[in-house]
Amino acid sequence: MPYADNHGVRIHYQVEDDGPPLILQHGFTQSLRRWYLHGYVDALKSEYQLILVDARGHGKSDKPHDPDAYALPSRVGDVVAVLEELAISRAHYWGYSMGGWIGFGMAKYVPERILSLTIGGSDPYERILPTHHRLDGNDPNAFMNALLGYLGIDPATIPPAIRDEMLANDFQALAAFQRGRPSIADVLPNMTMPCLLYAGEPDPIFPKTQESAKHIPNATFFSLPELDHGAAFRESGLVLPHVTKFLQENS
């Protein structure tokens, strides 16, 4: 099982096939398996070398319980550690939700490593969680329901298998990460690599994702009508045509 090391934190990753390298970074409470589950890997692996990364605190990567371990530069360093392990200098990057936040971090801290950037359901602006969302992780169901409420997702729409996977997380690690974040919107004018941003229209994050695209010099934005935050990742058949066209134009 392949791991990269970032200052003592082990980061699990998987590689599929050959071609231009494309990093796939999942969202909060997920793991790299979700790219397989929703059909992204099968759709992309014939054209790209897919580099799927379990973010720290998730999947088979290490799960620190110290909030300081989840600072954005460390999370960017995890991706760079994987690239270094594979001796890859530059790659395309696609991140959804939390993975999109890490993508903005890649653009801020290591833009020289990015060929193009695809970001779904995310923005670079400050996020302050309401007090009632700052749970300690001792009650996984309460944690998940608070998270889904914050994202405007009806818990009844979550397939049982996905909810079971989400409830298998280390919730102390998730709670350590979920403490709000500062704005890094100052990076937007400097994002000169080709960028593609998207979000589902009912997603509470939609306006900020759309707004951020307006301040990126070389950005395209597309929307997904009627898809909430979770569905805009699950419905890969609606997302992939846009992203594969973008990647083909910038590979």
Architecture overview:
- The chain has 251 residues and is of the alpha/beta class.
- The chain has a single domain, classed as Alpha/Beta hydrolase fold, catalytic domain (Rossmann fold).
- It is 35% helix and 19% strand.
- The chain contains ten helices and eight strands.
- It has helices spanning 33-37, 40-44, 72-85, 98-109, 140-150, 160-167, 171-177, 206-213, 231-234, 236-249; strands at residues 3-6, 9-16, 21-25, 49-53, 91-96, 114-120, 195-200, 219-224.
- Strands 1-2-4-3-5-6-7-8 form an eight-stranded mixed β-sheet, sandwiched between helices.
- The longest helix is centred in the first third of the chain and has 14 residues, at 72-85.
- The protein is globular and about 45 Å long.
- The mean pLDDT is 93.
Number of alpha- plus pi-helical segments: 10
Global Rg: 17 Å
CATH architecture descriptor: 3-Layer(aba) Sandwich
Q: Class by helix and strand content?
A: alpha/beta
- What letter string, H or E per element, gives the SSE order? EEEHHEHEHEHHHEHEHH
